Amino acid sequence: EIVLTQSPGTLSLSPGERGTLSCRASQRVSSNYLAWYQQKRGQAPRLLIYGASSRATGIPDRFSGSGSGTDFTLTISRLEPEDFAVYYCQQYGSSPPITFGQGTRLEVK
Amino acid sequence: EVQLVQSGAEVKKPGESLQISCRGSGYSFSSYWIGWVRLMPGKGLEWMGIIYPGDSDTKYSPSFEGQVTISADKSISTAYLQWSSLKASDTAMYYCVKAQLSSFHRAAFDVWGQGTMVTVSS
Question: CA of B68: how far to CAs of B32, B47, B53, B79, B103, in Å?
Answer without folding.
Answer: 21, 12, 17, 13, 23
